[in-house]
Amino acid sequence: MPVEPLSQKDVEERLAELPGWSLEGGRITRSYRLGSHFAATAMVVHVAQIQEEIGHHSELTLGYNTVSLAVNTHSADGAITTLDFDLARRVEDSAVGHGAV
Asked: Which pLDDT tens digits describe the chain residue by residue (101 residues)?
């Protein structure tokens, strides 16, 4: 079943519920800083697992002690959908366990 794009108002309201997330270039984005490269790598693996579980993937970037995500829904012509916010919420919840800020 196709996923419908969210309105600009819906995107803004949902972003308000996810501190640290923002809208950039038609995608919702967030960067996390962790205590070490190993911690950042562990978070990337965990995020990849979440993405596989829900069948929705972001652009995921590993830095020395940072993890960055950018997500939109390719199957909705690159629009932002509920799938993007579902992923963002799952990542946000797991980031706490990794000590991310």
From this structure: 689 999 999 999 999 999 999 999 999 999 999 999 999 999 999 999 999 999 999 999 999 999 999 999 999 999 999 999 999 999 999 998 889 98
Query: Which of helix, strand or coil describes residue 40?
Result: helix
Instruction: From residue 66, give the alpha-carbon distance in Å to each of 7, 13, 52, 61, 71.
Output: 30, 26, 21, 8, 17
pTM of the model: 0.95
Can you point out the beta strands (E) in 2-65?
22-24, 27-33, 59-62
Residue with tokens 């000590």: 99
Is residue 43 exposed (0-12), middle (13-18) or buried (19+ Cβ within 10 Å)? buried
Tell me the C-alpha distance between 15 and 2, whole Å.
22
